[in-house]
User: Which sequence fits this backbone?
């Protein structure tokens, strides 16, 4: 996550140890010509002890923040409110600089009016909440008081949020004395106005005014929208995240509401109904919380992974009940070691620990997660292997490949199933009928159980050939077709004059282009259940290949693959590169090894896996 392009200016004891200046005095010095505005803001709340402290906290924290001036981002905001973007347009936006030029730090441009309004509204609303007495001053300052979230435009948003949502709060929460229940009610109300999910791009935070009006973005933007509303209403909340998932290739952000016992309850505004008792099921490995002001006066070493040098990230894993630990050896004089996850291209560190006595011990780890010991190389700015991967389970399990003995295995995928298995389940009940030139049925084939691979190969009985195929969905399900071709596995396309049509009660649609484009990711889905497709061939065929809706991570016949195993500090070692001739690959692999299958022809989604009774177990 990128908040700043310049080094965070952390002030106070952590910056000038032993200096007689207070953090507030240092902030006022950094304000330059804006100093009088800040002094005027402090004078405006004089006499109210909580508001005085709150104002000082905001001024001190403002040294860490700034906005961006970006024509690219302005264009993206206008584009976001239109229809969903994809394909070449999305790739173009990914290549666009959406950050532009940093504006002056907040300490140099904050106006007294904005600070005073934020403090007055935050404190007055907080004092009216029945749960306020259960929280510390620090919790109020971190989870309710902040005047901004990160690098969004500087705005007077708190009053707008109160104007927009106070009536709903009074109606829904008048008798509620639990902040978690109040959060659930208000986020459910917010979801009722529809929250759009958009592709993740790299851009500054969008800002309160834009999000309140449009309610869109990816998970981080959903969290921002939730924070503006919850904090304005005096409900303590923060954004928690994992840097890299230990089970699939992505990061994720969610809203963390802090209850009166100082426990966290997680909400996903854009993904599910607002309820905390159905927590996020994806593995996290380690959880971090984004602070408004630094939690600690300690800084990581200059040669540490930059992620861990950001003082606004706090390890919140313990609050999620993570209690596993791993100890690794440091053999090259490292000052700190790391635990990483591997995303198919690189190691991403999600935990750091100091080395003491030649060992580093990592605590508060999630159960049933595979962690790779790594060291950070500041020259290449990357994590490098430093030991054998370990799985947190019971007494932990280390995957060190056995020196003798190889097992023959069959590999069908390079990435966890996720939704692809659901797509295959939809095919159960599908019926495929083959007819000759005269329309007589010569063969019928049905999907009776969930398949294990995504390519159906259907051979007609000896001596039988067909010129027409009808594919009918399960009466209770829609028909989803990805690709179709006949006879030759490597050709992977229909004859040039073949045609495919789909009928679902809304009319007949020519789907030839979609089911012959060579892409498993494109597909045609019928508008209604009990649909059928008809394929007409110019010449009789004896075999049909049918790919239902699926992802792109099964074995592609014709693609070039390479299998690796992890050999501790030696890193990934190749077990050979080969071209796939069917939907499976066979390899001889070391026992007790972590494996990684790379597709050199296409795609980016790849994950490490182990084998259990011949089946791929994904990490």
Assistant:
């Amino acid at each position: 996550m990128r908040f700043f392009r310049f080094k965070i200016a952390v002030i106070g004891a952590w910056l000038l140890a032993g200096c007689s200046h207070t953090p507030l005095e240092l902030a006022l010095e950094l304000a330059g010509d804006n100093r009088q505005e800040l002094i005027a803001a402090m004078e405006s709340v004089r006499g109210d002890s909580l508001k005085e402290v709150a104002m000082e906290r905001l001024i001190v924290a403002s040294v860490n923040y700034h906005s961006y001036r970006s024509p690219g981002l302005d264009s993206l905001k206008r584009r976001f409110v239109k229809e969903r973007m994809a394909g070449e347009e999305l790739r173009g936006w990914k290549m666009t600089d959406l950050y532009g030029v940093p504006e002056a730090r907040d300490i140099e441009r904050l106006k007294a009016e904005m600070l005073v309004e934020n403090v007055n509204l935050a404190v007055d609303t907080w004092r009216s909440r029945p749960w306020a007495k259960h929280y510390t001053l620090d919790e109020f300052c971190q989870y309710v008081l902040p005047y901004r979230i990160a690098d969004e435009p500087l705005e007077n948003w708190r009053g707008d949020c109160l104007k927009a949502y106070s009536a709903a709060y009074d109606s829904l929460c008048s008798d509620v004395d639990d902040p978690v229940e109040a959060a659930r009610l208000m986020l459910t109300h917010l979801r009722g106005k529809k929250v759009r999910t958009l592709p993740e791009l790299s851009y500054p935070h969008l800002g309160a005014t834009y999000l309140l009006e449009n309610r869109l973005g990816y998970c981080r933007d959903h969290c921002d929208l939730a924070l503006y509303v919850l904090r304005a209403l005096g409900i303590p909340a923060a954004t928690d995240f994992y840097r890299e998932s230990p089970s699939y290739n992505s990061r994720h952000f969610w809203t963390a509401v802090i209850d009166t016992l100082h426990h966290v309850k997680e909400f996903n505004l854009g993904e599910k109904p607002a309820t905390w008792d159905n927590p996020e099921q994806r593995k996290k490995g380690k959880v971090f919380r984004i602070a408004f002001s630094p939690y600690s006066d300690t800084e990581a070493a200059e040669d540490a992974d930059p992620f861990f040098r950001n003082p606004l990230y706090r390890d919140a894993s313990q609050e999620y009940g993570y209690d596993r630990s791993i100890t690794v050896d440091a053999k090259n004089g490292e000052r700190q070691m790391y635990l990483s996850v591997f995303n198919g291209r690189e190691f991403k560190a999600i935990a750091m620990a100091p080395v003491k006595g030649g060992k580093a011990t990592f605590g508060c780890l999630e159960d049933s997660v595979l962690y790779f010991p790594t060291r950070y190389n500041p020259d290449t700015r990357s994590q490098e292997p430093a030991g054998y991967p370990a799985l947190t389970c019971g007494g932990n399990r280390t995957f060190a490949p056995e020196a003798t003995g190889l097992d023959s295995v069959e590999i069908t995928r390079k990435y966890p199933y996720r939704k692809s298995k659901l797509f295959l389940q939809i095919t159960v009940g599908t019926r495929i009928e083959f007819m000759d030139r005269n329309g007589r049925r010569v063969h019928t084939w049905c999907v009776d159980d969930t398949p294990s691979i995504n390519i159906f190969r259907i051979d007609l009985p000896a001596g039988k050939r067909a010129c027409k195929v009808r594919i009918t969905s399960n009466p209770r399900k829609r028909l989803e077709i990805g690709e179709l071709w006949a006879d030759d596995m490597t050709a992977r396309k229909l004859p040039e004059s073949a045609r495919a049509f789909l009928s679902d009660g809304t009319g007949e649609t020519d789907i030839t282009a979609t089911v012959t484009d060579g892409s498993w990711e494109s597909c045609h889905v019928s508008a209604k259940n009990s649909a059928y497709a008809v394929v007409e061939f110019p010449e009789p065929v004896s075999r049909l290949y049918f790919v239902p809706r699926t992802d792109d991570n099964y074995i592609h016949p014709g693609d070039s693959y390479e299998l690796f195993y992890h050999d501790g500090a030696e890193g990934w070692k190749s077990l050979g590169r080969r071209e796939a001739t069917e939907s499976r690959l066979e390899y001889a692999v070391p026992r007790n090894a972590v494996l990684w299958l790379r597709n050199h022809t296409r795609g980016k989604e790849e994950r490490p896996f182990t084998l259990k009774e011949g089946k791929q177990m994904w990490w």
Summary: The radius of gyration is 29 Å.
